[in-house]
Structures are given as structure tokens and as C-alpha cells.
Amino acid sequence: MEVVDWKIDTNSPIPFYYQLEKYFEQLIESGVWAKGIELPSEGEISSKYEISIGVVRQALKRLEQKNYISRRKGKKAVVISEPKVTLEFIAHQISHYESLKNKGFEIKTKVLENCLINPSEKISSILNIDLNAAIIKLSRLRFISDQPMLYWTSYLPTIHCPGLEKIDLNNRSLYQVLLDEFNIQPNKSRKSIEVATGPKHILELLNLPLNEPLVYIESVSYFNNDKCIEFYEGWHKAQNYKFVFQSSISS
Description:
two-stranded antiparallel sheet; six-stranded antiparallel sheet; elongated
């Protein structure tokens, strides 16, 4: 495998092994070095980046401990990690559908449920609607590069988007449909994130073993004058996502 051009910053206080480790992580997470690919030999890496074999071995050992690569004595290291899907939580971005498409990912969304229900006490409180009011329950499974990566359920008040349950939302962005069909554009959201063990049926949908940890996200989105348009709870595969948060700091 050809080693991509890159140089150790010899003026940086960051240890050489750590610089190399993070650079190789970037190559693996971005898919430049795909799962199953052999890394260059320790000698090739040492020569290419003008660093000692000891530095190379330390970086590779740390990558192995983090399950990015597998090493066997006398063999080249092999990539065992899938590329990471980066979800960015930044001020101007509410939906991730178009962001992932723009990054070149093949996105497919399968609707599993789209119907009218009555809300639970928790959901009626979040959406600020009566317990007897009808809401839309929309459950979907998202595939990225043909791999099931995310299962999530959205709850929306019918008063803002009547008839949404009759619209085909397979392989479509919900927020684009809200804009096109109902002239609704969410402008802010509040999210909570935790690691949890998912329900059995969700683990099965994501092709994961029982007790596999997932990233669980709850999100509430708003539009005009703080009107709540959606509450969703989503289950993400933990090992295939990188979550990036951006915030502003005022002096």
C-alpha cells in the first residue's frame, strides 16, 4: 500500500508517536485505509516519516489497543475498523441527511412505521399537546453504504403537518418534506446523548448482538416562536460514529 504524504511536526510539543497515531486514525476513519487493507511495514513507515522504529511500534500498539488495526508477529498490521461516520452538531445544522450525502455517503432510509397514535405523558409534555390529541409516529431505519446504522422514531403534532402520515418518506429527508409540503423549517434543537443498551428488536434491526452498547439520542426541534415540531429518540451504532460538537465562546 502506498503511504500517503504527511510529515511529523518536529517543532510540536506533541509526541511523535501520538502524531502518527492520530494521522493513521484519520486515514482509517475516513476510509482512505479501508477495512482489510495491510498497512506499510514498520520499516517503511519509519523510513517514510523519518522516525524511529520504536516510535512506529508505539503508535501501532496504541492503534491495536483501540481496535483500529490487528497485528501478528512477522506480518504487516491490518485495518480491522470500519470508516467512521461523522455527525456534526453545529449551530446552523439541524438535520444530518444532506450533510452525510454531501460527504459522499450512500444514504438509504426505510420507513418501518408511519401512523397516527395518541401520545404518552412524556411525549405530550414535550410536544405541549393534549393526551387525547393525535400525533404522527414515524419510525425509520437508516442505511449508510448498505449497512444499517441508525434506528429512530419521530413524533410530530398533526396540527402542524396534517397528512404527513400519508406521504412516502422512504429515502427522503423529513425536514425537506416539512419545508416543501408544510412550509416548516426547524431552526433550533435540543439534544441529549448517552450510551445505553438498546432494546432487543433494535439490536436485531442493526445486526448487533444482545447487550451491544448503542449511542442513544433524544432530540426536540422547534420552528417559529419556539413551536415544537418534532421529538425523536434515536439509536446509533456506537462503533461506527464520531460525534463532533461545535459551540461559540463569548468573552
